[in-house]
Write a structure and sequence with these properties.
Layout lengths: L1 H5 L4 H4 L1 H19 L4 H26 L8 H14 E2 L4 E2 L2 H20 L7 H21 L13 E2 L5 E2 L2 E2 L4 E2 L5 E2 L1 H24 L2 H11 L1 H6 L4 H27 L1 E2 L6 H14 L4 H30 L6 H19 L14 H4 L7
Antiparallel strand pairs: 1-2, 3-8, 4-5, 6-7
Helix pairs in contact: 3-4, 3-8, 4-8, 4-11, 4-12, 4-13, 5-6, 5-7, 5-11, 6-11, 9-11, 12-13, 13-14
Length: 366
């Protein structure tokens, strides 16, 4: 929260307390503001929060532990399909979400450990290639496990997933307050996802300053030195993969319940690259950076979809670039400029493992 507050332009450094209150008000009022432009934008906010959870989980692996993972979306798929298997008519199993969601997190964590064991001695490009292959293997499995026994329903996907039901409230249904006023289901999902994101942030911030977080930082900076001082780098890598995968599994389960449909097309390589781009764009190793990067880059496609075609028609009389092509072009350009101008991301990570009183005299802050 403090890092997010400091990132607020002008107000962050002058009055951090006011910046914190501003962030809180914006987080709570965001769907109310978005619905003024249509329910589509509230849905965009819901998906943005899911991307925030994915970015936070990947930031554990890439930013904290220094392990490049290009197949992170596979854990998202494991969580989504776990929810689809256990809470849909596909196998005629309808377990409650408070049972399915922990199972989705657990299966994703197991997948993270399965990925971690073979790559314990790999670094850099080799690690990236293996994780990329793992992500594609999971997607291809989901796409082809419909013969001779139909497990995943193949490319058709699984639909009619059960919605989230909290204390008897079905989040997929509007809450009728009065005859003329009702609370839209998109609002209910938004605030539930927001609560999940806040819980994730608190957990990660406590983890970052723990012995595990410090061990990850040492391993990321110099693995040989970390081994020399007694850190079990094997266990730390497995823990990073499993914890990061857990966040992906939870986000996948929430995605399945919210979307009501899962298919292999939702878990392509481009999704993995998009989540990694969010982490790098915002700032690796920084919770606030992952949040800001995810919010900006998840909203960018929708903004382009609504503005790119009318603007091009007004300027040139025809559509020169498709919104999807323009999105990739602008995303690539943004990453190039970011690497040239701010290599550490929009919100660079600062040292958080030293005592502040030892750093003030040297002009270094948290």
């Amino acid at each position: 929260m403090n890092e997010l507050a400091l990132a607020v332009p002008w107000l962050g450094k002058r009055n951090p307390q006011a910046a914190r209150w501003l962030i809180l008000v914006l987080a709570l009022a965001a769907p109310i503001i978005a619905i003024l432009f249509g329910r589509t934008w509230v849905r965009v906010l819901d998906f943005a929060l899911l991307y925030v959870m994915l970015a936070l989980g990947l930031n554990l692996v890439v930013g904290f532990a220094g392990l490049l993972d290009l197949g992170y979306i596979a854990f998202y798929a494991v969580g989504a399909y776990t929810f689809a298997f256990l809470a849909s008519p596909h196998f005629d199993v309808h377990l409650p979400f408070w049972v399915v969601l922990p199972l989705a997190a657990g299966f994703a964590a197991m997948a993270g450990i399965m990925l971690g064991f073979p790559v314990l001695r790999l670094r850099g490009d080799y690690l990236a290639i293996v994780t990329l292959g793992f992500g594609e293997i999971v997607r291809i499995f989901m796409n082809n496990l419909n013969y001779p026994i139909n497990i995943t329903n193949g490319p058709q996907g699984i639909n009619a997933l059960d919605p989230l039901v909290l204390f008897g409230w079905d989040l997929s249904r509007n809450i009728q307050v009065t005859e003329d006023f009702s609370i839209n289901s998109l609002f209910l999902y938004y605030y539930f996802f927001l609560a999940c994101v806040v819980g994730s942030i608190v957990f990660i911030q406590r983890l970052q300053v723990s012995r595990v977080g410090r061990a990850w930082a040492a391993m990321r900076d110099d693995e040989l030195a970390a081994k020399a001082i007694g850190i079990n780098t094997r266990n730390m890598k497995l823990l990073a993969f499993s914890l990061g995968a857990t966040f992906g599994g939870v986000a996948g389960g929430l995605f399945g319940s919210f979307q009501g449909f899962v298919s292999p097309e939702s878990f392509s390589l481009m999704e993995s690259i998009a989540v990694l781009t969010m982490v790098v764009f915002g700032g690796m190793g920084n919770v606030a950076g992952a949040i800001v990067g995810a919010l900006i880059l998840s909203a960018l496609p929708e903004i382009l979809r609504h503005l790119a075609v009318p603007v091009q028609q007004a300027l040139f009389g025809t559509v020169i670039l498709d919104p999807e092509v323009l999105r990739m072009l602008l995303l690539s350009l943004a990453m190039i400029l970011m690497m040239l101008l701010k290599p550490a991301g929009l919100i660079p990570a600062h040292a958080r493992y030293s005592h502040v009183e030892h750093l003030r005299g040297r002009g270094v802050t948290r």
